[in-house]
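Supplementary material to the annual report.
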Amino acid sequence: MTQNTGKMQQHTVVALVYDKPGVLNRVVSMVRRRAFNIGSLAVGHSETPGLSRMTFVVEGDDSVLEQVTKQLRKLVDVVKVSDLKGVNAVYRELSLVRVSATAATRSEIIQIVDIFRANIVDVGHDSLIIEVTGDEDKLESLVTLLKPFGVLEIMRSGRLAMVRGVSQDSAANGVSDEDVPAPAKEDQAKSTPLLPPG
Amino acid sequence: MKLNGGQMICQALLNEGVDTVFGIPGGAIMPLYQTLPQYPGLRHILVRHEQGASMAADGYGRVTGKVGVCFATSGPGATNLVTGLAGAMMDSVPMIAITGQVAREAIGTDAFQEADVTGVTLPVIKHNFLVMSAEELPRVMKEAFYLARTGRPGPVLVDVPKDVFVEEAEFEYPETVELPGYPPKMEGDPEAIKRAADLIAQAKRPVIFAGHGIIISEAYKELQEFAEKGQFPVTTTLLGIGSFKSDHVLNIGLPGMHGSAYANHMINDSDLLIALGMRFDDRVTSKVSLFAPNAKVIHVDIDPAELGKNVRPTVPIVGDVKHVLQQLIPLVEKADRRDWLSHIDELQRNHPLWFEEDDVLRPQDVIQEISDSTDGRAIIATGVGQHQMWAAQLYKFKEYNSFITSGGLGAMGFETPSAMGAQVGLPDRVVWTIAGDGGFQMTLTELATMVENQIPVKIALINNNSLGMVRQWQDIFYNHDYVATLYSGNPDFVKLAEAYGLLGIKVTRKDEVGPAVKQAMEWNGPVLVDFQVEQTENIYPFIPPGTGVDNIVEDPRLVKKRVR
Ligand SMILES: Cc1cc2nc3c(=O)[nH]c(=O)nc-3n(C[C@H](O)[C@H](O)[C@H](O)COP(=O)(O)OP(=O)(O)OC[C@H]3O[C@@H](n4cnc5c(N)ncnc54)[C@H](O)[C@@H]3O)c2cc1C
Ligand SMILES: Cc1ncc(C[n+]2csc(CCOP(=O)(O)OP(=O)(O)O)c2C)c(N)n1
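Predicted assembly:
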């Protein structure tokens, strides 16, 4: 008999949940109680009134990922869960960075901001706020380059994810069934025609 | 029809087939209580502590398969329910708890007797609701019952602010529920079932693990047919006891930490585990990497999250085990497994379930006597500890679903209220509770409830004057260092029983056991028999935590005999 072992990885899981009081608490309470590690969590309204979408970055091996998705599905207020493992998806995160800037350093910072296609959204006496969107690598490289100037504050939105240019149906099926014991088909039982894809 | 919130709840309970409620009133829930007289179809049993209410509802739910219902007031009333709710969650028992809450406008102000009950209970229930208007109540009640009893059953709590009980709204009870995020799946995937049948066809040494799911889905006939057709030996988890007749030749009894040595050796030698509605609890597997090292696994469970959680199945099947067995049985060949079954017989001869039978009054004698005197047909409730394990090992259950025990949570104090709930649910059955003197003292207040409501539970107090199970661990892992496990001030339990109005019987000698059990059975009301048993008797065999079957500890007295 094999045990649940495997490599530590990061996975993206997207959940469609009812937008009503206490739902975030239910989700977070489950995550805490089962000692899952969540790298980030982003929540916002979906295209369907009454439903929100949550993007989780889950840290752990495949069996952790599997448990997280299954335990999320068990929550009554969670309508649909998609695991984006092996799925071609767009990942984005927004970050605001406050960096020290003097008359001497400002133009150098502006050059870096341009290269990253980031924006300066506020100019203060001795600092700037930079807004940047991208995947985590891009955000981290920018911060590394800004560090020598003095990074004063960082704010990150957490990862958002969306499956690339495919029909709604396959977007909903961002679950790889091969190494997941329970057939991923069970997810379809949850989706009714009224519901948007995961 | 316009009803107020309290009336809506009562009407919904009746619509859902509820006839009994266990509870205690208080300020916030009073408006609901004061409507009860309008609904004579609802019998309210006034308990003495809310833990008694949730545990009685649990016992009631387990034996009847219906939803057990309990009421409590806001704050302390509701928090007192929590242990019973957590136990029902762990053991998948259908239950509804209705709690009063402070009035809507007072919520969040630390009002008198306010507790965040939906917050407190969230991690230990299947789902809960805070009902912020009477208008929502019909839908909420419908959903609560649906969630409690379908899929993997569990407790659902409905928290109702005091002013919602008196608010009026239109009452139209919904026929259906709309819960797109909650789809219990009944049928197994035919592909997976085919793969399971293939594995079974190849197996030489298969073993069935029959769990609580068999009882929940009432798949008794299917299990028996399946086991007989494939000639599979059947091991029943603690909560699977009563899923398969104890006297069936294929029944190998309890697996795991306190299972028989032969059952555990059998599992170790097996090449295929067929797990049916059980969740590979750590008391069953011990160290997973050492558990059934050569076996493939077919795992059937209605909860997908159980598949692969503790043990990685070769073939996982999501579905209701009754449906899945119906699908699987036709695909399984009639088999002849004489070699495998005779191997198990040999294991059983070499590693029997054994206990010392001399003149000393031991806990095992009591359980064996009750088993014989009731012809294995009683409902047996238990507390938690040594007596619980002896009851599991030694009572010969001839009826299905007759063992009521706190498995997953292991909550002492379960013995008395759960037996009471079971007796209320099935008044025609004989109900015995095997109680520990430790656990009994946690909820003995319900003796008053039993007397008041003429609930004729027979209590076998296995009185070892100690917290036996913990004391045993001190013997084994802490060099007999008995820290906080021996009692020196236990009451006279016979006098205590009499003070409550029960018949009390004291037993100190082995030859008194039979007559005392007989007297208790003949008494037309609740009875307590104080069996003053050997204090240092230990439960064997056991597998020390974190090890495997190679480390199984059998009774040293048996081992000595064997050597001789
Ligand atoms: C002191 C102590 C010692 C213990 N020692 C042992 C021991 O030695 N051996 C032992 O076995 N236990 C022991 N236990 C009990 C143990 O902790 C577990 O409670 C028990 O093993 C659980 O049994 P189960 O998996 O069958 O039931 P449950 O925990 O109730 O699980 C039932 C499973 O069936 C599934 N299910 C429910 N309905 C259906 C359905 N309709 N169709 C399909 N599946 C369904 C559920 O999803 C769940 O996964 C001990 C407990 C205590 C307190
Ligand atoms: C509520 C609760 N508290 C503590 C424990 C820890 N515990 C497990 S078994 C046990 C001893 C039980 O003693 P008793 O009820 O007398 O039964 P015995 O083991 O002696 O048969 C204890 C304290 C528990 N399971 N439940």
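The longest strand of chain A covers residues 89-100.
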